[in-house]
Amino acid sequence: MIVHLNGWPGVGKQTIGRLVAETLAARFVHNHLLHDVAIVCAGFDDPGRWPLYEVVRSAAYAALTQHRPGEVLVMTNALVKASRRGEEAWAHVVDLAMTRASPLVPVVLDAEPDELCRRVESPERPGRKLADAQQLRELLAAGTLQRPDVAELIELDVTRLSAEDAARELVARLQALRQSGDLRPASHAHLRMR
Predict the structure, then answer these.
(1) Which H helix or E strand runs over 169?
(2) Are 190 and 149 in contact (CB under 8 A)?
(3) With 70 as the cut, is the pLDDT of residue 128 above it?
(4) Neighbours of 178 (CB within 10 A)
(5) Does residue 60 form part of some domain?
(6) Residue 7 is part of which domain span?
């Protein structure tokens, strides 16, 4: 199974994803693992960033196809509808799941805009992550998160949840999905958006 957490910067994808991965004994592949290589080596605004990112992503996904199909992967990203790059990124995730013959559970983590802005400006926010609330507000105004039109989509508002509570809720929903017997391997249906 692949669990893919999609959400705006500041929603807690990496923190929640890590907790979910630990609980499920899953491999955790967060978007910064791939993006940071390209940003550090090419530079954030360098035109070579995205071609380098694609090389890194392609190599990482090729390696992930070699792992046993039953291994659970927890992945993260911030994918927006009507964005060529976002649509391509999601298509790669769907292709990875189809190649592995794995179920794909898309998860959309959301929070109220003021809470997202508070979180991105937190001094505890690590690494090369977005830390400018105004930039975040511009992103929020310009796009909508991808929500694949599949029955197994999980949507979770984390505005008032700690990362631990959000992870517990998400794991409970994932376990319910697994126990339902309704999870099937990913298909092209995962490419349709609500």
Answers:
(1) helix 163-180
(2) no
(3) no
(4) 15
(5) no
(6) 2-31+71-191
Q: Which two tokens stand for residue 17?
A: 């994803």
User: CA 62, CA 106: separation in Å to the nearest integer?
Assistant: 20
Q: Which domain CATH number covers 117?
A: 3.40.50.300
Q: For residue 92, what pLDDT band results from cuts at 50, 70 and 90?
A: very high
Q: pTM for the whole thing?
A: 0.94
Largest CA distance in the chain: 47
Q: Which of 147, 153, 158 is nearest to 109 (CA)?
A: 158
Token output for 170:
């998400």
Task: Annotate 7-39 with DSSP letters as a single string.
Answer: E-TTS-HHHHHHHHHHHHT-EEE-HHHHHHHHH
For 29-55, the pLDDT digits (tens) are 998 888 889 988 998 889 999 999 999
The answer as to whether 111 is a domain residue is yes
- Rg of the chain, C-alpha, whole Å: 16
CA distance 82 to 30: 22
